[in-house]
Amino acid sequence: MTAVAGRISADQAALARHLLLQMLRVRRLEEKCVELYSEAKIRGFLHVYIGEEAVAAGVLDNLQGEDAVIATYRERGHALLRGVPAGAILAEMYGHVQGCCRGRGGSMHLFDAGTRFFGGNAIVAGGLPLAVGLALADKMAGRSRVTVCFFGEGAVAEGEFHESLNLAALWQLPVLFCCENNLYAMGTALGRSESQTDIALKAAGYELAAWAVDGMDVLVVHEAARRAVDAVRSGAGPHFLELRTYRFRAHSMFDPERYREKAEVAHWLERDPITLLRNALGDADQLAEAQWTELQREADAEVAAAVEFAEAGTPEPVEELTRFVYSERGPQ
Ligand SMILES: Cc1ncc(C[n+]2csc(CCOP(=O)(O)OP(=O)(O)O)c2C)c(N)n1
Ligand SMILES: [Mg+2]
């Protein structure tokens, strides 16, 4: 595995630039959401993914169209990189009908069956049993699909985590668990709630392959995820990645952040996954200033178009609000 810290070869440069753009797209969208939230254009909860972009970018790049993805309430980046249009995401944040859930889901419940992005889940660990169910269905139907489930390390304290890993291993299901270990569950540091803080070790106790990975180094994440996804797809049973990362912003927009030192945040900011990769590419003469400018322009243009789309949208008419309480498809 070549770390970002190492020199990037010419062969790797195209992939590295591609992943840099993916991370930048997420970063810019998240920054815009913070801005729109402070202008009260977005209401309700907002949990941003800034700092953790290498995880979603490195993992999702290895998936195929028929695979399935599940994430948490910090899921805009996962949705975007899975292929949900930025406009449909932002319109959802505005509560507009043009959103991917007609504005009914909002920040924590993005969902898009077309790209097999099965949420967005506000319940800590709530996605794991869903992922196991999707993987069980694929196994029973003999389909060679992979289900990838992202969740925070806070999920380890929930029963669903243990039940899901146990059943996935017992039934050898095609699922990849991706634990985004950013060291905090709201204001609770991992060591204050878990006697064993080595999460990969804990997962390995369920008899599945589990690796800890530097979640700030997108090339390392990409390589680890490639191996894991290939193994799962080839029938080698469930795999587990503990991606060690850090969120640069508060837990949500309502968090006064009294539980961590500024020096700790500053330390992790030095390992900003975007800066790390940009510098490594520059050091290897694989990213000219004009190329970097172009990547930023591309990410900014996508977000600007998405804002325009969301702003032009409309809320659900009041008379439509009771639709979808019951299925409109009729008996199957
Ligand atoms: C079952 C459940 N219990 C409590 C909460 C309240 N809650 C919301 S986010 C959160 C912390 C989760 O932390 P983690 O899983 O590490 O994810 P992160 O926010 O760090 O990405 C908690 C406890 C919840 N949403 N669901
Ligand atoms: Mg966490």
UniProtKB/TrEMBL annotation:
CDD domains: TPP_E1_PDC_ADC_BCADC. Transmembrane segments: none annotated. InterPro entries: DH_E1 (IPR001017), PDH_E1_Alpha_Subunit (IPR050642), Pyrv_DH_E1_asu_subgrp-y (IPR017597), THDP-binding (IPR029061). GO terms for biological process: pyruvate decarboxylation to acetyl-CoA. Residues 23-313 form the Dehydrogenase E1 component domain. Its cofactor is thiamine diphosphate. Its EC number is 1.2.4.1. It is an enzyme of class 1 (oxidoreductase). It catalyses: N(6)-[(R)-lipoyl]-L-lysyl-[protein] + pyruvate + H(+) = N(6)-[(R)-S(8)-acetyldihydrolipoyl]-L-lysyl-[protein] + CO2. One of its GO terms (molecular function) is pyruvate dehydrogenase (acetyl-transferring) activity. PANTHER family: PYRUVATE DEHYDROGENASE E1 COMPONENT SUBUNIT ALPHA, PYRUVATE DEHYDROGENASE E1 COMPONENT, ALPHA SUBUNIT BACTERIAL AND ORGANELLAR. The pyruvate dehydrogenase complex catalyzes the overall conversion of pyruvate to acetyl-CoA and CO(2). Heterodimer of an alpha and a beta chain. NCBIfam families: PDH_E1_alph_y. This is Pyruvate dehydrogenase E1 component subunit alpha. It comes from Pseudarthrobacter oxydans (Arthrobacter oxydans).
